[in-house]
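Collaborator request, handled under Task 6.
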Amino acid sequence: MTPDLRSPPLARRALRLFKRALNQTRCDWGKITIARKIVCSDPLAQAPDAGFELHILVCKNDFLNSLWSLKSFYKFSGLCPKLFIHDDGTLEPSEIKTFREHFVHSRVIDRKESDRDLREHLRNYPFCSKFRLEKFSWPSIKLFDFSYYSVSKKFLFFDSDVLFFKRPDQIISCIESDTGFFMSDLLDAFTFPPDQWHALFKVPALLRVNVGLAFIPGARYYDLDLIENCLCEFYRDDSIKRKFWIEQTAWALLFSRHAKHFMRLPETYQIGSIPPINDKTVCHHFVKDDTDSRCNFYFKGLTYLDSTDFMRGLNGVR
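Structure tokens returned to the collaborator:
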């Protein structure tokens, strides 16, 4: 029997499938026409000269996005931190080669290498080890590997769906003054409700913390014991909801414990699909909300950068 597409549930499903197919086509077209331009840009050959590091987690699907994210940061900030690229295990050898060609002084950390190192590092933290190794989830690389591989223990990190559009003065000021920072989220995207934090962890919660872009200003602000406590509560109850947000919850706990030393970035550091990119936008985090974030990254973010002669200016950066 032929389904009646006039039926509201079937019509809605058909519309969703059509939109999904259309978005995929737009994404594929965006990769061909816009995103691949970055591969032709000049390499960053300048030796690191900053007192902190930059860490980014990359998967195969976000290979091109991460090149844009990184180059937009280096271009607009004028800073040159040592770059650590953390492979989630899906990068192809050719993609790793491209990273090393474009960021001459970077270090690409292989997933097998990091698994071996973190197994030893977390041996006395059973719940941390469980989250990073036994019950592996890719955000755990952000939570543990960035700090472990940091040499100075002062490190900036951002996701591969973050783009910069102008000089990030607030970020530069914070880094120079050893002040931590984070972005504001659209909601309290935490595994544990904020009103429970004091009872569970003896820490009052900072609200609406997003770690798509953040800075840790020193070793004293990263506490494995607090993360272990957080993950102990996480694994205590199998029925716990909002499990995917546990990594962000752990970061927010760290920031909340040292709230006086962390700054919330202003609204010009945007997140989600609602605020449009404009001449005041410093950076934008293309999170997955009610829209197709990857398409917005290509057709809003990269198109906007392309309209500002970003590539021409980038090819003057060494």
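The cover message to the collaborator said: "Strands lie at 53-58, 82-87, 107-109, 155-158, 162-164, 180-184, 209-216, 262-264, 269-271, 283-285. The CA atoms of residues 63 and 127 lie 30 Å apart. Please let us know whether this matches your experimental observations."
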